[in-house]
Design a protein that fits this description.
Blueprint: E1 2-5, H1 7-14, H2 21-34, E2 36-39, H3 41-48, H4 57-64, E3 66-68, H5 72-88, H6 97-109, E4 112-114, H7 118-124, E5 129-131
Parallel strand pairs: 1-2, 1-4, 2-3, 4-5
């Protein structure tokens, strides 16, 4: 089982967020026990902002079992197409391309996506299994 992880879950853990952090940490542990957990460059970069220096990001993520897996052209194309449909449908710019890149990466490279942002990903990536940290019992 391959699980892609969304930035929201990693930020919950890195902050640490008192409200969402414990559930996100437990869910990440459960997903790691089930198989690989991967992050695309968008998640990696957004999460890196929480570290004191850039050279700590990779070693820290690898130590907990997170694997970097690049987007690739198929996922990038899927993301662009979904974002275009969203904008043509009148979607405001509150949803930016990185959200679509994360969803497409998970749809192409993983079996499921671990995220707290369930509604958005369910709407635009209907084939993607969404795992909410609050619903995972490690």
């Amino acid at each position: 089982m391959i699980t892609a992880v969304d930035t929201s879950v990693l930020i919950d853990i890195l902050t640490p967020d008192p409200r969402f952090g414990p559930a996100s940490a437990s869910a990440l542990s459960a997903c790691l026990a089930d198989g690989d957990v991967v992050a695309c460059e968008v998640v990696w970069a957004e999460s890196a902002a929480r570290f004191p220096s850039a050279d700590q990001v990779g070693p820290t993520f690898r130590r907990v079992g997170l694997r970097y897996l690049p987007l690739g052209d198929e996922a990038a194309s899927m993301a662009g197409h979904a974002w275009g449909m969203y904008r043509r449908g009148g979607g405001p710019r509150e949803r930016i391309a990185p959200d679509f890149l994360i969803g497409a990466h998970a749809a192409i490279h993983a079996d499921r996506l671990l995220t707290r942002d369930r509604g958005f990903y369910r709407r635009y990536f209907t084939e993607l299994e969404i795992v909410d940290p609050a619903s995972v019992h490690g």
